[in-house]
Write a structure and sequence with these properties.
Layout: E1 2-6, E2 9-12, E3 17-24, E4 33-38, E5 45-50, E6 56-58, E7 66-71, E8 76-81, E9 90-96, E10 101-102, E11 106-111
Parallel strand pairs: 2-11
Antiparallel strand pairs: 1-3, 3-8, 4-5, 4-9, 5-6, 7-8, 9-10, 9-11
């Protein structure tokens, strides 16, 4: 099983980025999926989760600004991030909780 995240980069505050996570070697549609992030010196925190049935949960700090989605045919999970703030700066990881598999992470940097 491999999770490959992409789409990070440098953006100014107020801007947008879209992250994508591609899954390999798993029956993607059966699995709940999540995005986590880790800022320097901080533990990983939940950004958003999307269940195999489509149920969605957002972390308090991103609710209303970020949108998680999945495409079971393409085996991808996306995170649309709008109205970005400097405090959103972190490495973002995709995660499959039931098999405890992490992607490699993608850096998001938001300048003020």
């Amino acid at each position: 099983v491999q999770l490959q995240a992409s789409g990070g980069g440098l953006v100014q505050a107020g801007g947008s980025l879209r992250l994508s996570c591609k899954a390999y070697g798993m029956n993607f549609r059966l699995y709940d999926m999540s995005w986590y992030r880790a800022a320097p010196g901080n533990e990983r925190e939940l950004v958003a989760s999307i269940g195999s049935g489509g149920g969605i949960v957002y972390g308090d700090s991103v609710s209303g600004r970020f949108t998680i989605s999945r495409d079971n045919v393409r085996r991808t999970m996306d995170l649309q991030m709008n109205s970005l703030k400097p405090e959103d700066t972190a490495v973002y990881y995709c995660y499959a909780p039931s098999i405890e598999r992490w992607g490699q992470g993608t850096q998001v940097t938001v300048s003020s």
